[in-house]
Amino acid sequence: MTKEQDMVGVNSALQELISQVDVDAVGVASLAEWKETKLEEDALQLLPVAQSVVVLAMEISQEVLDLSTHSRIVGAPSMNDLLNAETDYINGQLNEATFDFAKSCRSLGLKALVLPVEGCPMDNRFLGAVFSYRHAGQAAGLGKMGWHSLLITPDFGPKVRIAVCLTQAKLEPTKTGFTLRCESCGICLDNCPAMALAVPESNKQYAFDKFACNSYRSASGGCSECVRVCPEGR
Questions:
Q1: CB half-sphere exposure, 159, CA atoms < 13 A
Q2: Hey, how many other C-beta atoms are within 10 angstroms of the C-beta on 141?
Q3: What CATH number is given to the structural domain containing 10?
Q4: pTM for this one?
Q5: What does the alpha-carbon distance between residue 63 and residue 104 come to, in Å, rounded to a whole number?
Q6: CB atoms inside a 10 Å sphere around CB 176
């Protein structure tokens, strides 16, 4: 068996493994299709031999989101505690699945790097991560970016947590034919307490003031209004 044939077998084994990962959604972006883009640049800075970006997602329940609030009263019960507890559980499950997939890559002789749900290095001066999970999810066919700058998936809307695995494996990319309806909606713009959202320019997917959002979230103790009110995935 030639080295090329052996690699085909390895990639096929990983492709099969992806279909069995115990998460709600998995997508793959092939860096060969994203030459000279920020996605490729950021991925290769982290893993120079990366050929594929595997994006894994799990749903946050609408029931918990419906109870969340962006306002708090000192000493009063906070329903956000339920959201935090569910998010912690989801993060653990998602990270475990992502690390297990990376381990499988390495066991087959391929390099892999996990970017966990939380913990991706941030540049706090500019509020930017070294790798955008949401844009990777869009490239991997999991959904599209909405006016609230979040990844909207066909089945779950923006109610997802995301983890990423960069891998040397050459995997089959996934696509989506999902169509957004942000232009006929705009509910997130009307409900953003930080007034951080606006109608985007025609050549943009969103207009988002991340500094206003971050300031409000820090002062209020958290906010998920744009996720909560989005009608997609209900």
A1: 23
A2: 21
A3: 3.40.109
A4: 0.90
A5: 35
A6: 15
Q: In what order do the strands lie in the sheet with 52-59?
A: 25-30, 52-59, 160-167, 112-115
Q: Could you tell me if 180 and 144 are in contact, meaning their C-beta atoms sit under 8 angstroms apart?
A: yes
Phi/psi of residue 11, each to 5°? -65, -40
* The two structure tokens encoding residue 205: 């997917």
Q: Please report the beta strands in the chain, taking only residues with DSSP state E, as ranges in sequence order.
A: 25-30, 52-59, 112-115, 122-123, 128-129, 144-145, 151-152, 160-167, 197-198, 207-208
- The range of the structural domain enclosing residue 56 comes to 3-179
Of 41, 32, 63, 25, whose CA–CA distance to 151 is shortest?
25
In whole angstroms, give the CA distance from residue 189 to residue 191: 6
Residue with tokens 């044939």: 5
Q: For the chain, what's the residue count? A: 234
Tokens of 201: 């320019």
Cβ-Cβ contacts under 8 Å for 82 (sequence gap 6 or more): 64, 67, 68
Which tens digit of pLDDT belongs to each residue from 205-225? 999 999 999 999 988 888 999
Residue 215 is assigned to a structural domain of this protein: no
What's the pLDDT tens digit per position in 9-63?
Answer: 777 888 888 878 899 999 999 999 999 999 999 999 999 999 999 999 999 999 9
For the beta carbon of residue 226, count every other beta carbon within 10 angstroms.
25
For 148, the token pair is 């609230």
Rounded to whole angstroms, the Cα distance separating 29 from 62 reads 28
Number of domains in the chain: 1
Which 8-state DSSP code applies to residue 153? Answer: B
